[in-house]
Amino acid sequence: MNADGIIHDLFVKWGEKYGPVYRMNSFHSVFIAVHCPEATKTILMSPKYLKDPLVYKRLFNLFGKRFMGNGLITATDHDVWYRQRRIMDPAFSSTYLRGLMGTFNEMSERLMDHLGEIAGTKTPVIMHDLVNCVTLDVICKVAFGVDLNFLKQNNSSFQHAVELCLKGMVFDIRYPFFALHPKNWKTVQQIKDAVELLRKTGEKWIQNRKTAIENGENVPNDILTQILKTAEEENVNSAKDQEQMLDNFVTFFIAGQETTANQLSFAIMELGRHPEIYKRAKAEVDEILGTKRDISYDDLGKFTYLSQVLKETLRLYPTAPGTSRWIHEDIVINGLKIPAGCSVTFSSYVSQRMETYFKDPMKFDPERFDVNAPKPYYTYYPFALGPRICLGQVFSQMEAKVVLAKLLQRYEFSLVPGQSFDIKDTGTLRPKSGVICHIKHCS
């Protein structure tokens, strides 16, 4: 990591060298790395194996400031997690998600308009920065009814705070002595201030909505309103519950925004590298959409090849590359007895890049996800598996399809010659170069 390397590539090498089960020590802690499909199925699909508290409780605070707390991602107690999930589920039902298409279209159109101002000028654009603005706008609008239009903001303190928190997560988890070095104290304070800004913003937005509901005002039928309604029905109103609501406010922005932006960036990068895949994806979009601007919910199901492109993107570049579970009882994995009281880690990055499970794994090939292709057996899980599978999986892929389809429909893009295709390891994965493209109108 000090040499700017990708730690996940090291795990792939170790997986190939040591096999599907091997042990790592980190000071006094023991981690069992596993890429055995049967063990993946057994452990991740069962609610009895809880998230590893050694890892996820590190995100409760960030350098002493409450960060993700006991939110949906970090809650290790099954009952605490299940109660929150029950409150959140109605806001992510298929019926509700259908109603978000207008917002997905609106925010994507802003990006198209912005690119329209650039097209023809031969000015290269950093696509990652632009799609990052769009996904952040989408989360703000569909989840909390706030329209900030980050494409028009040059230096947003809120956007900067999200970025700082993402960096802080990596520093805090991977470098246990980071905060002890005086040279890092300024950075640590900036990260703590960023966490405070996010939580204060969340507190303000939530309180404003509660007040509006109490006053009988018309409020947007967004995710926050859905959550507040369900919380009221569940009689969830204590100070502790309010803190958990703020935990999930932070979780939405940290887990639900940059990951989609990174997936879109990698997809754009690979389409730029593979003209034949680009042409096929564009032909499908043109056939389905023609000249119409708004994409309907029914259109999304017709984007067969585009879906394959997005799935293959997540195979090579899983933006949340792994998860871990706590083994509370003795278990046998691949013939090896694993004692109780240790952590088992699962890396989708490792299993999805191994020749054992995917032929020619470094080749970008959307055909792997053709309806007639053999399905990967518990080796492809970019959104995790089982009861703790990502709640926002469908939301994320709907958003990604709308943005990418509109981009293919309206513009031609080509990568700037000589740019790097390396990965930047920031906890999530993003293109190191940001994906720099030339944009022009489709003829």
Question: What features would you describe in this structure?
Answer:
This protein has a single domain, classed as Cytochrome p450 (Orthogonal Bundle). Helices cover 50% and strands 12% of the residues. The protein contains 17 helices and 13 strands. The chain has a 4-stranded mixed β-sheet with strand order 1-2-9-6, sandwiched between helices. A hairpin with a 2-residue loop joins strand 7 and strand 8. The mean pLDDT is 91. Its cofactor is heme. Its EC number is 1.14.14.25. One of its GO terms (biological process) is cholesterol catabolic process. It is found in: Cell projection, Dendrite; Endoplasmic reticulum membrane; Microsome membrane; Postsynapse.
Within CATH, the superfamily carries the name Cytochrome P450
Helical content band: 40-55%
- Shape field: globular
Overall pLDDT score: 91
How much strand content do the residues show? 5-15%
The helix-strand sequence is: HEEHHEEHHHEHHHHHHHHHEEEEHHEEEE
Tell me the CATH topology.
Answer: Cytochrome p450
N/C terminus separation: 45 Å
Oligomer: single chain
Radius of gyration: 22 Å
Given the helix and strand composition, which structural class is it? alpha+beta
DSSP, total strands: 13
Are there runs of 5+ residues with pLDDT below 50, and where? Answer: none
